[in-house]
């Protein structure tokens, strides 16, 4: 399922040339997961490395306290945040790109012989912990839990 689109008023502000603060993380992760699957199908370790590096760059950027307005609002618990406390859309993407560049300068890790390739990002479990579980494992036996 694709991430939700920005609200029309936000897009209209962008069209008028106003500075906006949009959070692209959901879109980035949607693409990185799709490309990671492509890497698996094509046995492409360089693409796999890029996907994991991109996700890590997003996480590291936010953990370094560089984030768009919506995340800053969540952290502060109020909509009253000063513009100096968050990054505008282009600034945030530039910050992610800088982190990504640093990560990609490191050599591609060599796979351990006999060990399957891992397309998992250790952080991914926090975003989709039940991704590979059955509905029964996640929700329990629905018939037993439903009052009659």
How does this structure look, described?
The protein is built from 8 helices and no strands. It starts with 7 loop residues before the first helix and ends with a helix. Helix 2 (25-42) packs antiparallel against helix 3 (45-63). The protein is elongated and about 55 Å long. It has a domain at 22-109. The chain has 148 residues and is an all-alpha fold.
The residue ranges in which pLDDT falls below 50 over 5 or more consecutive positions are 117-121, 124-132
- Residue-averaged pLDDT: 78
Q: Whole-Å distance between the termini?
A: 34 Å
Q: Into which percentage range does the β-strand content fall?
A: under 5%
Figure out the total of helices. 8
Q: What's the overall geometry?
A: elongated
Helix-strand topology string? HHHHHHHH
In total, how many beta strands? 0
Helix/strand/pairing category:
mainly alpha
Largest sheet: none
**Radius of gyration, taken over Cα atoms and rounded to an integer in Å:** 19 Å
* Relative helix content: 55-70%
């Amino acid at each position: 399922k694709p991430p939700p689109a920005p609200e029309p008023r936000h897009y209209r502000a962008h069209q008028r040339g106003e500075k906006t603060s949009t959070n692209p993380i959901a879109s980035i992760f949607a693409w990185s997961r799709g490309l990671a699957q492509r890497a698996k199908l094509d046995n492409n370790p360089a693409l796999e490395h890029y996907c994991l590096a991109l996700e890590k760059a997003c996480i590291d950027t936010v953990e370094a306290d560089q984030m768009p307005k919506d995340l800053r609002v969540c952290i502060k618990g109020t909509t009253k945040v000063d513009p100096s406390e968050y990054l505008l859309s282009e600034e945030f993407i530039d910050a992610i790109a800088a982190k990504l560049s640093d990560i990609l300068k490191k050599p591609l890790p060599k796979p351990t012989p006999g060990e399957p390739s891992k397309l998992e990002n250790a952080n991914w479990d926090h975003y989709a912990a039940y991704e590979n579980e059955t509905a029964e494992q996640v929700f329990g036996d629905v018939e037993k839990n439903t009052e009659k």
